[in-house]
Structures are given as structure tokens and as C-alpha cells.
Amino acid sequence: MEVLYKEQPLRFQKVGGQVGRCYAEFIMRFFRLSLFLFLFLTVMASLWRLNPSKVLAKDGGLPILLYHYVGPLDNPGDSARKALSVTLQDFEAQMNYLQANGFEPVTLGYLPYVFEGRQSLSGKKPVLLTFDDGYMDFYFNAFPILKKFGFHAVSFIPTGKMNGSYYLTWEQIKEIRQSGLVEFEDHTVNHVNLAAASGDQIRFELGESKSVLERETGQPVSYLAYPYGAVSGQVIETAKSLGYVGAFVEGDSRAYSLGFTVPRFRINGYTTLGRFEDIVNGRIVSLLPVYLKPTGSNTQENKSGAVSSRPQSQAAVRQPDSGSSASGPQQRVPFGLSLPRFCFLFWCF
Ligand SMILES: [Zn+2]
């Protein structure tokens, strides 16, 4: 009994030592494997960054950009306004980047071809430029730059607000339309939250705006951008029944098909040129391809009362999207991840 008593602690020590060594080996192997994966992914990310055109060709996705205001930010501390504004200088730099790097903004009619994997008509890399809300600064600021570069764009307008103090006039819309560069599509009548609207209201907002826009521009209207990105199944079914063929939301993902929740990247005062380059070159890895904003309220408009002006025309514009529960960048759902950030998270995991 005495011998057994003495052997037991010895056995225990021996087994305990083996367990300790195994544990240490496991840690080292895990560390080496993680280090290898981290280095591998970092190298791959660098290669991807260096040669984005190959990724675009393989990926086939279309970057769709969403702008609101293009003009000066009078109060740099106005974060809500900054989330909707791009300065003239930044906008011109972005358009310059597109032109210098082989991009060509396409028209809505060309989207089916893009999603079939084709490039733009000229063989350049396709991108779609969209502008929401029909602010008057589009006429004075964005449109001249689009003309300078010969770029196509789409303007989504809430028809009931046109001719208002800070919005485009129908005369300006017709003049812009005659350039052949800008298509005007639907953004409802009153810029309401469709996801919170009744069936009758949805039908009115989508039907009335479509007929008014077609009458004023003389062009068919087939596309829709949901105000606040708010959408529901009922909204989509109503849009389909009224003859719409596609609709846009907001989300950090490129578009891969035409549907009723086509994602768009918001470009605003927080968008650096580096971030812009990542977006158009497909360096943003999206975790979820479809972005649906949570239902908000219908009383989101014009709460901030913030006003901006253009130096020459002093054309002041207000911001219907400001003050909404989903307008600030800090409140947006971060569905997008850059590849380096993805590598870092993988490494942490
Ligand atoms: Zn809007």
C-alpha cells in the first residue's frame, strides 16, 4: 500500500507533463497556422489592390454610387449634412478618377448588359452614378461637371417637391434631360417612408409620381429609389404591378443583378478618395448582398433645418433625409468590410 501511494503522484506528474506539452504544441501550431493565414491573406489583399481590373472582370459586379448634395459644406460640424454632401472639389476629383482609370458611367438601359458580364459600350469599366432628392444644387454644381466629363447619371426625384425653394424646377429638369446625359426616375411624390405607408398611399406615391414624371419629361419611367431606403414586400409588389422594372436601396455592396433591392454605395463628406477608389474597384467585401433599412417614421423630413448655399447662385437647399433614424454614417448598419479589415478580423478570430 505504501508503494502504491508513492507511485500515484509520480504517474500524475508524468501525465500532467504530457498534457502540458500537448497544450503548448497546440498553441504553437495554432499560432503558426494563424500567422501563415494572416500573411497569406495580407499578400492576397495587396495583389488584389494592385490589380483591381482583374477582380472586376472576374467579379462582374457593378458599383452604383449614391449622391445627394454636391456643394459646399458651410458648417463642417454639421454631421447630418456632411452625411449627405460632397464638396465640388471632391466630386470633381472623383469624376476625374473615374475618367483617368478607365471607368464609364452607364445608363439604366445598359444595366441588363452589365449584369450579363459585359463592359460598357466603349469597353471601359462600368459604374452607375445616381443622385437622390432632386436638389437644385444638382443643376448648378453636379450637372456642369457631368457635362465636362460627358458622364451619364440618374436623378431620382420626389415629384411633389419640384419647383420648391430648394429643389429643381421642371424647366431645369427639362433642360438637363435634353442634354441626353441625365435620366430622371422616381423617388415618390412626397418623399415618404413607403415601408410605413398604407397600401393606398404606396400606390399613390408610386403611381402618381410615375405619371407626372413621364408627362413632364416625355420619357418612360421604369426605375425607383425608395426614400430612406425603406421598403417592404408590399412596396415591391405594388411597384411591379405599376410597371417598374427595378428599384434601388442603399448598402455597401456592388450590384450583381437587376431587382427591387439593388444596393448603392453612399458617397458623402466622409468618403475619402481612397475609400472611393476601394468602392469603384471592388475592394469592399460585403457580408450581406441585400440591404434593407429598418422601418422609420414618416415625419423625418426637414428636422435639422440646415441650409447650405452655392457661392455663385446662393441656391440654398435643405435636406429631407436629415434627422432620420438611418441617415448618419454612425447609424448605418456596417455591412461592408474592406479586405484588410477582414484579414484583421480573421486574424483576431
Ligand atoms: Zn431621398
Category by helix and strand content: alpha/beta
Query: What share of residues are in beta strands?
Result: 5-15%
**Overall pLDDT:** 78
The low-confidence runs, each spanning 5 or more residues with pLDDT under 50, are 49-58, 288-337
Top-tier CATH class of the largest domain: Alpha Beta
Q: Which radius of gyration do the C-alpha atoms yield?
A: 26 Å
Order of helices and strands: HHEEHEHEHEHEHEHEHEEHEEH
The domain count comes to: 2
Give the termini distance in whole angstroms: 51 Å
- Record field, number of beta strands: 12
Q: Which small-molecule species are bound to the chains here?
A: zinc ion
Which oligomeric state applies?
single chain
CATH architecture of the largest domain: Alpha-Beta Barrel
CATH fold description of the largest domain:
TIM Barrel
Task: Give the fraction of residues assigned to helices.
Answer: 40-55%
**Main sheet specs:** 6 strands, parallel
Number of helices: 11
Sum up the overall morphology in one term.
Answer: globular
CATH superfamily (homologous) name of the largest domain:
Glycoside hydrolase/deacetylase
